[in-house]
Specification:
There is one protein chain. With 411 residues, the chain is α+β, with helices and mostly antiparallel strands. It has 2 domains: 270 residues, L-amino peptidase D-ALA esterase/amidase (4-Layer Sandwich); 123 residues, Ubiquitin-like (UB roll). Helix content is 31%, strand content 28%. Strands 1, 2, 3, 4, 5, 6, 7, 8 and 9 form a 9-stranded mixed sheet that branches. A 6-stranded mixed sheet has the order 13-12-11-14-10-15. β8, α5 and β9 form a beta-alpha-beta unit.
């Protein structure tokens, strides 16, 4: 994890913030699944100010339409999520998503309009409400501030590791928290979010700034991740604020707002990195850091172009310092800069090596480069030498296992 001064990583994940509880159970939603949790619930004792972002794909899962409808007033109190089936492109998808909310509301004794819903898994397969209906009462009874990990497990599909964390910090002497869980391993090239991400906080902040912070931080984190170039139909990112930290409510962009925004960044950036690290079949985390750009947007475009390149990703899998592929990806990015000024370095815990200056290759030791690229975390350092803009993007290598996983996804 990347640490930040003034922010301490703590246990609790999505339940670290005051007022939140979660749980995950085995519902058997996917045929033959009797060993993996696949139904999760997140609940707050208070109605929460809530903001959300969704996929940019024209094909959207039914849960997105229901969540958007329920969130029109800016408040929510619970989230119900299933894995194993995306509930997308189904004739009765909206009806199923609404029923999930109604059943959750009944079990928690709250308004169905205060329940948000998410689904992830196979697209285009009918989703039965029966296993979900049977397990929601148990799920509600098992809610606990100590069960973030169980909820995290329940939203996983091809993920190989749980993605959850939380930070603690202070605002005006009050202990505050931001925490979350997310899932995503394949079909990750979001223009706004990862496949599913649920972030909670006990910071008292007005909804306008809650949404502004989410959009800003998302643009620097989840939107800078690409595993395979595909954008999911179900991407949903939700941020809930209980306000139970009892700090003076944040209503303007002052130092307290900056503290909150930085805490949100600490959580979302690390979750985004873990999404890239856990890319389907991945063996390496790739981090492309671009500096010297005319502006931040140019830097972001270039960084994402590099980590999205299948040729670059394949070269990194082989620990091959094929810098030409990197320069090629920089060159076809839709950004304006002078390619003859560009330099590229490759780095890891084993050291750093320069492979390109002034847009052309230079002599370097292939053996040293291979040693650098044999690590599990690789940095691709790009300097455009034409400004002060900077950006970071995250991806992973492209392996034989990625093809195997996706060739056999439905079987």
């Amino acid at each position: 994890m990347v640490k930040f001064e003034g922010y301490e990583f703590v246990e609790g994940g999505v339940c670290a913030a005051e007022g939140f509880a979660a749980a995950g159970v085995i519902a058997g939603i996917k045929a033959g699944n009797t060993t993996k949790r696949d139904l999760a619930m997140i609940y707050c004792a208070e109605r929460c100010r809530t903001a959300a972002l969704y996929t940019t794909n024209k094909v959207k899962g039914a849960p997105i339409y229901v969540t958007q409808k329920h969130l029109k007033d800016g408040y929510a109190q619970a989230i119900i999520v299933n894995s194993g089936n995306a509930n997308t492109c189904n004739e009765n998808g909206i009806e199923i998503a609404e029923q999930m909310c109604e059943l959750t509301a009944e079990a928690l004794d709250i308004d169905a309009e205060d329940v948000l819903v998410g689904s992830t898994g196979v697209i285009g397969q009918p989703l039965s409400i029966k296993p979900i209906k049977a397990r929601i009462p148990t799920l509600a009874k098992e809610l606990s501030p100590k069960k973030s990990s169980e909820a995290c497990e329940a939203i996983m599909t091809t993920d190989t590791r749980k993605k959850e964390l939380a930070v603690e910090f202070e605002i005006d002497g009050r202990k505050c928290h931001v925490g979350g869980i997310s899932k995503g391993s394949g079909m990750i090239a979001p223009n706004m979010a990862t496949m599913l991400g649920f972030i909670t906080t006990d910071v008292a902040v007005c909804r306008e700034l809650l949404e502004k912070a989410l959009r800003k931080v998302n643009a620097l984190t989840y939107s800078m991740v690409s595993v395979d170039g595909d954008t999911s139909t179900n991407d949903t990112l939700i941020l809930m604020s209980s306000g139970l930290a009892k700090n003076p409510e944040i209503t303007c962009e002052d130092t307290n707002y900056e503290k909150f925004e930085n805490a949100l960044y600490a959580v979302m950036m690390n979750l985004a990195r873990e999404t890239a690290r856990d890319g389907e079949g991945a063996t390496k985390l790739l981090e492309c850091i671009v500096k010297g750009a005319p502006d931040e947007n140019t830097a972001k475009i270039v960084a994402k172009s590099v980590i999205s390149s299948s040729l670059v990703k394949a070269a990194m899998f082989a620990s091959d310092a094929n810098w030409g592929r990197i320069l090629c990806a920089i060159g076809y990015s839709k950004a304006d800069f002078d390619i003859t000024q560009v330099s590229v370095e490759l780095a890891s815990e084993k050291g750093k090596i320069t492979v390109c200056t002034d847009g052309a290759g230079i002599s370097f030791s292939e053996e040293s480069a291979k040693e650098v690229l044999s690590e599990e975390e690789i940095k691709i350092l790009v300097d455009l030498h034409c400004g002060e803009g900077e950006a970071i993007a995250w991806g992973c290598d492209l392996t034989f296992e990625y093809v195997k996983i996706n060739a056999e996804y439905r079987t």
